[in-house]
Each structure stands twice: as C-alpha cells, then as structure tokens.
Design brief:
This protein has 10 helices and 8 strands. The protein has about 270 residues and is of the alpha+beta class. α2 packs across α4 and α4 runs antiparallel to α5. The longest helix is centred in the first third of the chain and has 25 residues.
C-alpha cells in the first residue's frame, strides 16, 4: 500500500463529497421549503429514464472509487468495500436530503436503482475480476427541451443532465470476454441501449400536457471498450479510462414500444 496516495484519495473524495452536498443544500434545496422526512413513489415517472440515471451514476462513481484505491495500492477487498460503495453512499445522502424537501421526497425506487448500479460493479469483480459489461451513456439534442426549457434544460449543458428524451443508457458487453476467439478484437463490444422520448413531464397524466406520444426505445449497436485499447502511453491510457463511460457512435437498430423498427446509420 502507498499510504500517501491512500490518504490523498480519502481526503480528496471526502472533501469533494462534503463540498458537493453543502453546495446542493445551499444552491438547490434552499430554494424550496423544508419538510418533515417523507417518502414518495415515483417509479412510473419519465418511463424510468431517471432511474437508469441513478444506476449509471452509482456504477460510475463506484468504479472511480475502486480504481482510485487501486492506484493507492489498497487491497482488492477494501477496494470493493470502501471504493465501489462511494456512489451508493453519496447518492443515499442526496436521497435523504430529498426526503426533507417539500418539493421532493425520499424515493425507494431511486435507492433500489442506486443499489443495483453498485451491485453491477461489485458483482462482476467478484465473479470475473473484471468489468465485462460496462454501463455507458450517450446523448443527442431533441426538440422537447425547446418546448419546456425550465424542466428539460436551457442550453446544451443543462439538456445533457435534464432532457431524458435525448439520453440513452447502454449495457456494453465485451465480446472477447465471453467468446474466446483470437479473431475478435479485445476492444470490440456489443451494446444494448434503452431510451425514451415524447416526455415533457414526469407523468403522462400531468395537467401541464397530455403526453400521448411517449415511446420506449430499445437499441442494438456496436461499441468500443476504450480501456482495452493497447497503448504504451500512460496519458492515453488515462484518457481512455476517463472517457470510457461514453458510448462510441456507431450504426444502431432501434425497436420501439409501438413495434416500429428503425435503422440509424450513425447513432449517439
């Protein structure tokens, strides 16, 4: 173990988490009335796109937590125990803050999604000692944000975070990890995506608008696992690891909940 590195990781992560939570409390929650702790049932909102966002965030934060502890020389067991649970711990704190806000509430379905994201990372490490299936994200701009920018984002940066219509979440599986063949490149993945569109509000029966065109979208595409591209450059390896959460644009086949099939020559 590299003790200075370990201390740096612990202090940095604790500081960033604390600053972020304080910032949320002052800049976000302070604009809404406080309340007694309450729970809500929001499992049907946004065609579950927000829940996939929780799965993705918990998985990626856990991956970062484990990898930084690995950089510090911490044992594999402690990486999983203290590193991969980083996302679950942080998002649980945010969920508790939601519970004391009049505008929101503690969501058990959010917690289930957070737990699943952490479990996806930990489970693969225990089963295979590697991440054969990686959670990834892609985004494209839609016209829905222009119709309701206060809810879905005003400008590209806000839309990336808020416009569920343009988000797609992917399970990107490394083919060679499952099919041991020398003909298959190490970096080639098969990706299964989920998205949705036609949403201006969380619920279809919201008084703001009747969302009659809501549709679920299922995708099949190829992808690249950037972390498996061989390079002697430490800089490039770091860059590949950092950006490996983004789905690489490829042609894709879409099947939606209305039974329609569509070919995208270039989907992101």
């Amino acid at each position: 173990m590299n003790v200075p590195r370990r201390n740096t990781v612990v202090i940095t992560e604790a500081s960033l988490a604390t600053i972020t939570l304080i910032g949320l409390d002052q800049l976000w929650y302070a604009d809404y009335p406080r309340s007694k702790f309450k729970t809500i049932d929001d499992g049907e909102e946004w065609l579950q796109m927000d829940k996939l966002g929780h799965v993705f965030s918990s998985y990626q934060l856990g991956r970062i937590g484990a990898q930084t502890l690995n950089w510090a020389g911490v044992s594999k067991q402690d990486q999983l125990l203290y590193g991969s649970t980083l996302g679950l711990g942080f998002l649980t704190a945010v969920e508790v803050m939601d519970g004391f806000s009049e505008e929101w509430g503690f969501s058990w379905t959010d917690m289930l999604a957070n737990t699943f994201g952490t479990g996806l990372y930990v489970g693969q490490e225990l089963l295979w000692q590697e991440q054969r299936v990686v959670l990834k994200y892609s985004f494209h701009r839609t016209q829905f944000a222009q119709e309701r920018p206060d809810q879905l984002g005003n400008g590209l940066f806000e839309e990336i975070l808020k416009d569920y219509n343009g988000q797609t979440y992917w399970l990107s599986a490394n083919i060679k990890s499952f099919i041991k063949s020398e003909k298959i490149p190490n970096w080639l993945n098969l990706a299964f995506g989920y998205g949705a569109e036609g949403m201006l509000t969380g619920n279809a029966n919201d008084d703001f608008v009747q969302n009659e065109n809501r549709v679920r979208q299922y995708y099949l595409s190829l992808d690249i696992d950037l972390s498996k591209i061989r390079t002697n450059s430490r800089f490039l390896k770091t860059i590949f690891d950092v950006f490996n959460f983004i789905k690489v644009p490829f042609p894709a086949i879409e099947l939606n909940s209305k039974g329609r099939v569509k070919l995208h020559y270039f989907y992101f």
